[in-house]
Amino acid sequence: MNTPLPPAEELALIDRELAQLDARRLYLLGRRDWLLRLLLQPGSGPAPVRWGPAASAGPAGPAKEASAPSAQNVLLALGAVLLAVAALAFTLVSWGSMGIAGRSAVLAAVTAAALGAPVLLLRRGLRSTAESVAAVGLLLTVLDAYALYAVAMPDTNGTGYAAGAAAVLAAAWAGYGSGLRKLRSPLPAAVLAAQFALPLAALAARPGPQALGWALLATAALDSALALRVRAAAVPAAVTGAGALLIGLAQSWSAGSAAQALAPAALLLAGAALGVAAAWREPRASAAALVGALAAVAGLGGVARPELDPAWTVLVHLLLALPLLAAVRVPALPAAVRRGAARAGAAVASLAALSAGAVAVTALVARFRVLGEVWAATTPDGDPYGAGAVAAATLLIAAGAAWWLARALSRPEPAVVAVVLAWAGLFAAPVLLGFPVAAVFAAQLAVTGAAGVLALRSPARGARIAAAVCALTGAANVSLGALDGRTATFAVWGLLGAGCAAAAAYGAASRPLRSGAAVGAVGYATGVLVAAGAVSDLAVVWWALPVLAVPALAAALGPRLGGVRLPVEIAAAVAGVLAVGLSAGRAGTLALVLALAGVVCAGAAVRPDRRVLGWAAGALFAAATWVRLAEAGVSAPEAYTLPVTVPALVVGLLRRRRDPQASSWTAYGPGLAATLLPSLLAAWGDPGWLRPLLLGAAALVVTLLGARGRLQAPLLLGGAVLAAVAVHELAPYVVQVAGALPRWVPPALAGLLLLAVGATYERRLRDARRLRAAIGRLR
To answer: How far is the C-alpha of 656 from the C-alpha of 651, rounded, in Å?
Structure first.
């Protein structure tokens, strides 16, 4: 092939054209990969129709796990990493084998080539390659700085030199990135390098946490100014600012005096000013205002902390946080500043309330010690200027702040918090202040009553529920504390019971609240009666008699209880069970209590809507009878079952007269089974003849009555029991006869029976159907 160009020029031309073709091919492959992903997305529409050879091509090959640009980026990144490793190895290992001129020349040449190559690569459209080479060039500049220090300035302060090198490199990288704006790594690298300049310089000039904190804060200020134009700079600003505030906070809380806490306080206040300024300029930076407000509270509170007790320190921080809550009502402030300051104030107030609440809870939980020795009077300890008093004041101040915030924001959540905190502060204050026992109970009863009134009358649902929970908790706690003395028990429980009864009668309240109050009234009435039995020096079994007055009163009131009738009756039933449990220690008393409980149930069952209590009354009467019989040593089952059977049969007879269509199983089945079945079991184990005879006669009478009255239950139950008694009585004789016969006779008789049944199967089946139909016609 003859060409007019010399071979060398033609070869260079071919290489350039091939490079252009490779670049174009990479671009087209990347575009193709993007289009394929676009078409494979849901809802992208039908794939376009292909024309030409591609339309007739066979099935596609295996799917590629990585696109061409992705593979290219991975290769370039690996290449950049390998070059960086090689440069580090050269600088750290092979540096000493060359003279100073050679070393400088090599690093300068390589650095210049690495930083200049991206210019040519960007012109050819090789952006990814340019990014990788530029990253290697930036790393080489760091190595150049290290080489300069190791060779030319080995005696210079290393920290100071690092600070200057960081500043120079940041400026150089920023200029390099500004010149080549298509590169994405130089400018972020410049910002990252700039973060180390001021902190390293501060440590070189004056080692210590204070200097480092101020340097970090100054760096954060510069980053914040840059973040107004470049949003990504907000991240290093947050990191360096947080570091400065953490240093200030650690120094403040480790200070041994107020004078030593002034310097950290200044750092924290400067950080607070920076955070507020950032939120002032950027509407989305409310978090900066939040952190700044918290830093201001920590700084000012840290000055007072060394001179105060921990409880007073908490109160001081709470007082410092109150102006932050007021920021929500200052329209001149930007919205971000208002939100951040208010949230910071709420956070400090919450922490203060939790700290004070822990003190109050500890004092109230101490009342559980009374369970170890009931009615052993104790006197609370307290100090009007101690931690308990300060905790109560903290809770009340936090409650007031929450209530003000609820009014300012028109939100229900702060109101709920205000109710809980106010109740906790007022309820625990008498104990924490060491008031006399009578004053403590009077104050806590008043607070509990106020919470109950708020629960009944508050229009806000959240505050109503919170007040109800507080009233319930307070009532339980003061009831437990009242066990310290007899007088306190009767007075406190009586007043709480009266209050619950009044709340249950308040018709304007919601039904759940009234029902809970009614249950509380029944519970306190029961407790007072038990306490009265304990005071009377009677045996425990006799305490059950006054307790039975509670279910008796509930049964007597009945419909007069209105909407709280059902919860009152359930609570009264629990009181009745308690009475039975109290009387269980003596059989005679237990029988009496069971009988009285049966009378109460029978009286309640007179009303049409409580007929079901008649069954309970019958069970209680039967139980009372059984207890008496067991006490007398009676072991015959009929003595226990007949008192149940006779009333049950009478009730069944009356029901059949009112409702002739009622089933005999419902009317007579339970009563007959209550006696026949236990007696049958006893007869099978009785070797005598009297019980089987009497049971057989009774079963025969029941069977005949059932046949005469065409009643299914008496007929079947009586017949089954009669057959079982007959089998029991004839069994010994059958066994004797079977033993006297040859062994082949029983199988032969069984075979004959089977043949007879088989031969007359159809007729026996018809007889069985007629029998079933006849029984089905019975009632």
So the answer is: 9
